[in-house]
Amino acid sequence: MTMADTIRTKLEAAFAPERLDVIDESHQHHGHSGWREGGETHFRVVIRAAAFNGLGRVARQRAVNSALREELAGSVHALALDVDGTAAA
After folding, report:
1. CA distances (Å), 89 to each of 7, 50, 79, 86, in order?
2. DSSP one-letter code for 30
3. Cystine design at 42: which of 24, 35, 78, 82 (Cβ 3.0–4.6 Å)?
4. How far is it, in rounded angstroms, from Cα 72 to Cα 56?
5. Taking a C-beta distance cutoff of 8 angstroms, is the pair 46, 79 a contact?
6. Could you say which DSSP state residue 75 is in?
7. Phi then psi dihedrals of residue 24, to 5 deg
8. CA dihedral for 21, 45, 8, 11, sign (positive or negative)
9. Distance CA 79, CA 48 (A)
């Protein structure tokens, strides 16, 4: 399983998102801090979930970081987040 798959699986389980994009941007950071041969170090996540409704920006980001705490403490060097709630039905 790739790191992108792991991130996707954990975020789906934690937030049941209506939208979830997990993009490995490691190739854009070649030679930068935290980059390693083979990639899987720098990710961008776009997530929309009702679980974030009513939460402020920092609380939403903290919730995602908490769900991915093991990955962020390990091989993931950078995580760019675009986190929001969903529109009311």
Report:
1. 27, 11, 30, 9
2. T
3. 78
4. 21
5. no
6. T
7. -80, 110
8. negative
9. 16
Question: What would the two tokens of residue 82 be?
Answer: 């675009």
What does the alpha-carbon distance between residue 17 and residue 46 come to, in Å, rounded to a whole number? 10
Instruction: Give me the helix-helix angle, 3-15 and 57-67, nearest 10°.
Output: 120
For residue 64, what are its two tokens? 């995602």
- Per-residue pLDDT 10s for the chain (89 aa) are 899 999 999 999 999 999 999 999 886 655 556 555 556 788 999 999 999 999 999 999 999 999 999 999 988 888 999 999 986 54
| Dihedral sign computed on CA atoms, order 10, 14, 20, 26 | negative
